[in-house]
TrEMBL record:
Keyword Transferase: yes
A Pfam family the protein falls into: GrpB
Protein name: GrpB domain, predicted nucleotidyltransferase, UPF0157 family
Keyword field: Transferase
A Gene Ontology molecular function term of the record: transferase activity
InterPro entries: GrpB/CoaE (IPR007344), NT_sf (IPR043519)
Listed transmembrane segments: none
């Protein structure tokens, strides 16, 4: 039997109202595992922004009491289909992905007070409040998905400057709206 190496394909699709439902279902499963540690859970990423084009992967941000305690849940998370990836390049985070080549969910866990929590929430809230910016971001992602169909690093690098610019705008917007 000839086994071919699978390659992750970058696909960006139009907004699906089911994504919110999928977030809620998955959040409940995770809460059943990590309940003692969880402070708050949030739907983040492009699937949380109505009307935007996105990779059909639900991003969930979990704020916890103590990041060191999250590792004790790795086996339970694996039992519901997740792959534990440790910090996966971001200090102070625990990352889980559901599916390797056909991912459905990403879990980003941070200890309360980590600035990444605020950054992600600010980005989401800013994009929801500024649909024209969200549309531009969606268009950029569609373009990059075609250009980098089999290259996740190229796809992510192509979004990096835009995301940094929105992060700055979002930070100012939140400060001005407190």
């Amino acid at each position: 039997m000839n086994k071919e190496k699978q390659i992750r394909t970058i696909e960006v699709v139009s907004y699906d109202f089911k994504w919110k439902e999928e977030y809620l279902k998955e959040a409940e499963k995770i809460r059943n595992i990590m309940n003692e540690e969880i402070i708050k859970m949030h739907h983040i990423g492009s699937t949380s922004i109505p009307g935007i084009y996105a990779k059909p992967v639900i991003d969930i941000l979990i704020e916890v009491n103590d990041i060191k305690n999250v590792d004790i849940y790795n086996k339970d998370m694996e039992d519901i289909g997740y792959i534990a990836k440790g910090s996966f390049g971001i200090e102070g985070r625990r990352f889980f992905m559901k599916g390797l080549y056909n991912r459905t969910h990403h879990i980003h866990v941070f200890q309360t007070g980590n600035p990444e929590i605020e950054r992600h929430l600010n980005f989401r809230d800013y994009m929801i409040a500024h649909p024209n910016e969200a549309e531009c971001y969606g268009d950029l992602k569609k373009e990059l998905a075609v250009k980098f169909k089999y290259n996740i690093d190229g796809y992510c690098d192509g979004k990096d400057n835009y995301i940094k610019e929105i992060d700055k705008k979002a930070r100012i917007w939140v400060q001005n709206n407190k």
